[in-house]
Structures are given as structure tokens and as C-alpha cells.
Amino acid sequence: MPEFTLISSNSNTILYLNTHNESGIRLISELFTGNPDSTTIPSKLTASTEFKGRLHLLDIMGEFSYKPKQFFNLIPDNQFFLFLPDHIDDIITIEQYRKELSRINGTSIKHSDWDDIMVSLSHHYEVRMFNGNSRQKIGVFEKNKRICRFCGKSLPYVSFSQKAHAISESLGNKGLICLEECDECNKHFNETIEQDICNLLHFQLMLKGVKGKKGNPTILGDGISMKNDTSSRSSTGRDTIVINVKELPDSHDLQKTIKSLSKKYSFVLEKYTPQNIYKCLCKYVLSLIDSRYLSFFKDTIKWINEPLTKRRLPPVWYYSIPTGDVPTLTIMIRKHNHKEIPYCWAILSVAGDQFLFIVPFCSLDKYKFTGKNRVKYFSDGLSYFMPYIKLKPIRLSGVTPKNIKIDFNLKIPPECVEGRDFYILQQGF
Ligand SMILES: [Zn+2]
To answer: Do the Cβ atoms of 268 and 403 come closer than 8 Å?
Structure first.
């Protein structure tokens, strides 16, 4: 199936076009050259008024025409954009094309620390970033050609009728779907390892207003419940945290009410098993990478599927930087054969929390990255790539369920105004 990548210098999005048939190819030729019979399309194209006038040709795609039209309409008139064969998803390659485009368009591109990190990373790794907001289906489209990535079975021994989210839906992923995960494996992961990561992040997800399958989560504590009502976001630009307490003093004295509310509350959340979190992180990577890499991760898949067993695993590095409420997974795949560094590692970013982890048991790795020196070598490298980020190593190899207790101090500072910053509502029972 011919596939093309379109890159513009002004937008952060990339457009992918693919076509299954002759008429699709003719449509693409006519759109970009004005002639449906044209057999070559130059890679450097101009967003001329003439070109934009032909965008109505896309109407034939129905609701799917919205995205490409928006992409082209956002390119300022007469600027260049690129039309490239194949599906290009390596973000470093894309960044290089974008820089080149900015140069020929005479526009400037914002330079950030991220660029520096990318340049030094690019010597060693291909980097792909997956965003939970972008609609992307990973794997073979035809059901009868699919092989489940996790159990190796295909039709008719397993079915593929459920939507398998490549990153759990409860973490806020709406768009990334793995086509190559059978219904059995999907159900199994939903009920096991994915629960652990959701339990671990339950409180942060609630605070960020991340909506999962069942809407906004509510956290229940001792005599208190908390929920993020995001409906105020569109009008006021901020969320509303709704806190329900069982007992409020029967008083019209605001200060007295505030004083009685201001105390420590505790939330005891559902337990999580550390190693299940590590397995789940790796499962996300294996759901998203191109299938050509899967054969190197046979032992990783075996480990994900095995019952909980004590294992020596590399540490996972945790850090916290403010992010949006959409989960992203950035996957690094080693370009060269120097086995001092791991073949594959990744960063899951969710609700302001970042987990950086090595995908273990890869057949292209010489080391396990569990010994002190190997771990230090890798983490020194990370500090070089990310000099401003404080990485905290955590151990996620444990097999005993752990409790999560969150102590929460409710305080309403004196500068907060009732009716503007907070409301107190008495509810009859
Ligand atoms: Zn399966």
C-alpha cells in the first residue's frame, strides 16, 4: 500500500496519506500536480492558491477529509511543504526535514533544550514519540493476516473484535490502538498488569482530570471523597476539585467552617504490584513498535506473560515535570551495534509523572543492566542527555502487592475568596 508523509514547517503535526487503489493514486496526483495522470510528484511543493483551490478534491473522503484539509490550510500561502514517499515516523528525521524547510521558507524554528537532547541522542538511537491524542492504528489492517503480538495466535484460534488500546485508556489514551492484540490477551492484560499502573497513578490521574473509560475517577478516603470536575475548564480555564466531607459544622461562620475542614485526611488506594507496573510499561512499548522489531523481544513477551516470579530487573527512573494530561510514550531504538547501551528504552509520560525504563530480555542486548556498574554507565549517559532533570531510580521488580496511602492536608489559605476561588455547599441527606 503506497504511503506518503507530508511535513510542513509551521505545524507540529505530520500528515500521513495512504491509498489502497488506482483512484486514490489519481486523486493524490491531481491534488498535488493538477494532473491525475501525472506519474511523478515533486517532493518540494508550494501551498499556492491554485493548490489550495484543489483541496475540495478531498471531499470524496467524507469526514476523513477534515484532517488533511486542516493541515494544508494551516500552511501560509506560497510556503513550501514536503511530500515524501513512505511512512516516516523517526522524530529526528522529521526534525531535520523541518529545519531544512524552515531554511528554504525563510522562517525561524524554535530552538529548545529538547533539540540539544535530540541531537545527542540521535547519534545512538532512533526516537519515536507516540501521543495518546493522535489517532494511530498499529499493525496489520486485515484481520485474517493479524498475529497477536503477545500470544502469537491468529484467526480462527483467537478473535480481534475488541479495541485494544496500546496505552491503557484509563491513563487518558484515546487514539493509540494496537490492532495486533487478540481479545483474550486484551482481557487478560486489562484485568492484570494494567490495573496495577492505574492503581499506582489513580490520585494523580484524578488531580489532572484525566478521563478514563469510566469518566473522571473519584477517590474515596476516610470521611472524604475527591473528584475533579473538568466541566469548568472551557469557561474559566481551570478545573474544579470537588471535595465531599461527611461532616460540616452547622454554622454560618465561614472562618469556623474553614477551620473545621482544615485537617489531615487519608486515602488508602487499591494495591499495586511493582513488577506488574514494569511489565505493563514494556507491554506498551511492544504494542507500539513496528512489528519488524518484535522478534528481538521474544523473551520480553515471555516474561510479560509468565506468572509473577522474582526477577532481577534494571531500575526504572522516575522524574516529574509538568506535562499535559495526554499520555505520551517515547521509544528509543539503538541504531548501532555497541552493546554498552541498551537496545531499547522508553519514557512514559502520564499526568506529570515520567517513567524511564529499559525494555529487558532483548536478544540484541549483551548485558542485563542490573549490575551496579552497568546501571551507573547508563544512568550517567542519561544525566548527560538530560542535564536539568533529576532522575530518581526506583525498583519495580517486587512481586508483593503494596499499599498506597496518601495523606492529604486540606488548607484554604486566607487569600482565597469564597465564591471566586472556592465554594462551600451544604447538602441535605
Ligand atoms: Zn493474544
So the answer is: yes
